[in-house]
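G., the chain you wanted modeled:
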Amino acid sequence: MPDEVPTNPEGDKAWGSSGLLTVSGRVEAFSDGVIAIAITLLVLNLKVPDGEPGTVVRHLLDQWTSYVAYLASFIFIGVVWVSHHALFTRIRGVDSGVLWRNLLLLLAVSVFPFPTATLAYAMQHGTRGDQFAAIMLYGLISVVMGFTWLVMFDYLGRHDELVREDVAPGFFHEERRRAVFGIFSPVVAVAIGVVSPAVALAAFVLLPLFYALTAEGGTPRQRTTL
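Predicted structure as tokens:
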């Protein structure tokens, strides 16, 4: 592991043996903003009841798929935010490789309200074919999200100069297993959707819980004090 990276007096740069590194604070602030906007946009899928007097309760109940889709995506993006925070507590500096990979991750986050709205609409108003198409779209974006974590973990695993010294050796190589799970687990939910779109929707709510429980690392051996 290289020597500790000193901070430039200007406060926005740091120098390491591999060249100029940008400190991660600005990256985290920008990422938090994008994630906050994406998670806020999800609520736009919930519609105010519009109909004859006396039908409010019925219209609210008719939107149950929108509530479940909202919950699934809120948990998903919330877990991304928690995992993103845990990631950057282990990074002491970022280079262009991390910046581009972080943008790829944010791309997947920012587009998530779209498959969420599509899934909610299809489950409420669409045919069985529409519902499965929406489930496939949601699953595809989830797979892309898992891929963005994989390329980030793989890059950090090959660039020790960007990682804090108190992080266990090989930590990010091990974290690639969680990313691979994130790539393949949505495929299972899509397969379930062939038989029951409603059960697949419930599966999308449950899948992010694995990441919620392992946000600090896949095994106790990998965790550090944050």
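The chain has one domain: 14-222.

Shout if anything looks off.
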